[in-house]
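Section 5.1 Outputs to date
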Amino acid sequence: KVISVRMLVDMLPNWLITLVLAAFLAALLSSFGGFVMGPATIIANDFIKAYFKPNMTTKEESRWIRVGVVIGTIICGILAQMLPPVIEMMTWLFAFMAPTFFLVVYGLWWKRSNIVGTGTFLIVWLIANIWTFTDLKYVIGMGNVDMLYIILVLSVVLPIIGNCIFKTKQGYFHSDEWKQSEEYRLYQKDKHEGRA
């Protein structure tokens, strides 16, 4: 890994190295922004607004999101001091993004539940932290198994189990909410006219 980076630095012209580093920095900041903004927005909308302050104004919601961003940034800064190199950091970042994809797919076309989504994220977060910061993987004889595989399996299986155990809503595209929405009316119009 170090040799290939050293070769790039030694062989590429300075302007190209600058471009590559700028692209890397843009990707890193974009990932960090999504990593911090996503949970802050979810906490403000799905927990604080849903359970504690149902009549929250947009200004209050923005304030809660800002508080979540600050707290998330502090947590990321603390964890960054303990994390291994960039390659493993990207793996760790994937560990938090993977459940999102499957929860969205299941939520749109099958079943959806805040409890299942929250539980999935908490379990995946716990496993990612244990896998990264402890030697448990070596103790149980899985030291050669990359965390990505564990997270991928958990991201697929946990929502299925959770949706079968807990009371859930229908998937959005099978719900009355969708069928009564303006988007559905436009979709039906486009479908009738042969554009969908």
